[in-house]
């Protein structure tokens, strides 16, 4: 009976012939990982700060109710302030597609906000006014179509069955002083 020699374990490390990373490259790699972590944390903090520090406004909308196979049920929202008359444009030059647009909102008697002006740069507000940042999507002869980044709202599966009926909605939005906006609540209006 022959005995085989005992196995020896070799510690894992760089493959033979490959030099280890120089200290300068390791520092860059650490900075890159730290930057990615800070970016993710910054996005999360900005979302919470928008809800905590932002001004709450309500807008009326109508749902267009699609289903996305990857993400589940969501409401695609079309706000009353998504298509506005061109007469509200306050810029010196005519609006262009993909241009930033700042919509000045004022409260109506029922508490919802309506657009009173569209500006190419953020206007100053007074009293109860609010500014919502968007972008120009289409320019027609007498109107503009705007997008705010608030057109999609994901809902739980149980709630989506109740929302299948096309009913008017009231959307509560929190608008931060730096222009970021976030949907905080969606309610069905009684007709």
Describe the overall structure:
The longest helix is centred in the first third of the chain and has 31 residues. This protein has two domains: 33 residues; 133 residues, no CATH class. Strands 1, 2, 3, 9, 10 and 11 form a six-stranded antiparallel beta sheet that branches. A five-stranded antiparallel beta sheet has the order 4-8-7-5-6, with no helix packed on it. The chain is elongated, with a radius of gyration of 26 Å. It is an alpha+beta fold. The mean pLDDT is 81.
Layout: helices, strands, pairs:
Elements (H helix, E strand, L loop, with lengths): L22 H31 L1 E10 L2 E2 L3 E8 L3 E3 L14 E8 L5 E7 L10 E10 L3 E5 L4 E3 L2 H6 L6 E7 L5 E8 L3
Antiparallel strand pairs: 1-3, 1-10, 2-3, 3-9, 4-8, 5-6, 5-7, 7-8, 10-11
